[in-house]
Predict the 3D structure of the following.
Amino acid sequence: MRERTNEQWLAELRGPNPDGALADLYDLVVRGLGAALGGYGGGVEANFGDFAQEALIKITGNLDSFRGESRFTTWAQKIAINVALTDLKRRRWRDVSLQELFARREAADRGPADAQLTPERLALQSTVLQELRRIIDEGLTDRQREAVVAVLLEGMPISEVARRMGTNQNALYKLLHDARKKLKKRMEDTGFSLQEVLAAFEEG
């Protein structure tokens, strides 16, 4: 692969015959993914080609956003790594059902107590968790409950939850916003301020 300046990369990728630059960029991106994700495990290396192809589509579609503040190759590799990490995060949840997440959360709530906590702190945490669980079960709609458990409690990516719930990300953000407001109000109605809830789970 021959060296190119930022300007040469842009000119060739925008030119009438970009095949040579695309082939070199593909090789460079695959090597960059290997350096960044080589220790990721799980046979991720087998997907580098797919990640690189998707990254090339994003890179060539966003050439106008490159400002020249870094080397073009550095900018391109950063896009490729983001593409790969996003896809790997999505794959992590591909075979996990929302129903499994509910069961997982219930098991976590019944999990072993932290031996470092005082009896008073344990009692407060237990009370707060019980109240949150009651409000989630009784005070939210079915859709709000699904979204809260998946996104806020289990950390599932917004895009994946939206896909499973048959909605779009903007609608899901609105659903979560409304659910958060309802949870906050219901907790305050039971006598717990936001500060008290946070204090119950802070370190130390």
Summary: The chain has a mean pLDDT of 81. The chain has two domains: 6-92, 98-201.
